[in-house]
Design a protein that fits this description.
The protein is an alpha/beta fold. It has five helices and 15 strands.
Length: about 270
């Protein structure tokens, strides 16, 4: 997408957010490595603080009920993508998560005039980074080439440019290692920087040992960052960003971060 025009609308301007309450089964969520089990109370507390941070940043939050049959359903960004132009129902790469798409579909049909659905391959929302230059789709263990190409076609129907990029080996999702800080700046890890995917951006690299901090989330003028990463928080503070530290200790044990717990868009009908 190098050389493409910037999207006129600010990519951080959100007034609408969808989240889903964690269920008691969240303690059985998927995990790529064993870092201990979270507690329901811990995940619930982190999720409630997340909702309050969203409201504090100026967004209206729609809270969906828990889905006990789907432990990972609190992470609503993987089965769907939302934009001002419409929504896309995805096909998560983990077989146990495929039916989450049908669970969230009625809500999106109620809220969006245009709802597309991925028909082929697999694609997780955690592999999708929306920038002012276009949408980046990371190939990973959860997003394959067929799904990425199908997603490109759906994004084109919404008037969005996109490109397919590589996720470093051993990294679950593309956004595990990156997030957007402003129209020209990404927060990323050394391993993702070495891939060259962000050569068109200014890059801020998280300190060694705080790689999980790269999954930050900007909502309006607030940058939400895991509170377990003090050096990253200090770096962003010194760079002039308005930082909101949020606890992510328990959700981090089930392969999650800040971006995956919400669907965010600007609703021009509000």
């Amino acid at each position: 997408m190098e050389g493409t025009d910037l999207i006129p609308a600010a990519v951080f301007e959100f007034n609408s957010v969808i989240v889903r309450e964690p269920s008691l089964s969240v303690v059985n969520g998927l995990r790529a490595e064993d870092r201990g089990s979270p507690t329901y109370e811990g995940v619930k507390a982190e999720h409630e603080a997340y909702i309050e941070a969203m409201r504090g940043a100026g967004a209206k939050v729609t809270v969906l009920p828990p889905l006990p049959a789907f432990p990972d359903s609190v992470f609503v960004e993987d089965p769907a993508l939302v934009f001002s132009e419409g929504a896309i129902l995805l096909r998560p790469g983990a077989p146990t998560r495929l039916k989450e798409v049908d669970a969230i579909a009625p809500t999106l049909h109620d809220m969006f005039d245009v709802v597309l659905r991925l028909a082929d391959g697999y694609a997780d929302g955690g592999d999708v980074l929306t920038t002012a230059r276009g949408v980046m789709i990371g190939l990973s263990a959860r997003t394959d080439r067929v799904g990425a190409e199908a997603l490109k076609a759906s994004l084109e129907k919404l008037g969005r440019k996109s490109e397919v990029v590589a996720t470093p080996e051993g990294v679950l999702h593309f956004k595990t290692d990156c997030s957007l800080l402003d129209e020209e700046t990404v927060l990323t890890t050394s391993r993702l920087t070495r891939s060259g995917v962000f050569k068109a951006f200014r890059q801020m690299i998280v300190p060694e040992g705080e790689e999980a901090a790269a999954n930050a989330l900007r909502v309006n003028d607030v940058v939400m960052v895991g509170s377990d990463f003090p050096r990253t928080i200090e770096m962003l503070d010194n760079a002039g960003y308005r930082v909101a530290p949020l606890k992510t200790t328990d959700i981090g044990k089930i392969d999650a971060g800040l971006s995956c717990m919400s669907l965010r868009w600007f609703n021009d009908k509000m």
